[in-house]
Task: structure prediction
Amino acid sequence: MKTKKIGTLKRPRISVFRSNKHIYVQIIDDVNHHTLLSDSSKKKYNFKIPKNKIARKIGMILGEKAKTIGIYNFFFDRNGYFYHGRVKALAEGFRKTGLKF
Result:
């Protein structure tokens, strides 16, 4: 049975979308229907480095931004993607900044 993860302001949801070329991440408060932070690899990252390193870098950048607004605990919503490759690298980037899932 599938359970639905609902993010709150104290513990928002990290939603991940992975395409063939890019990875998109949003930190969402589902109670207030508000996106707190978002980032993607499409914006500004050098594509000469591997996609896993880009995903880890995005996780670290968003983790630091989340810490500045005072959020340390999250639900990690991988949207059905397997927990390996870029999704795992993104989660490791968040964890390197000291955030908890």
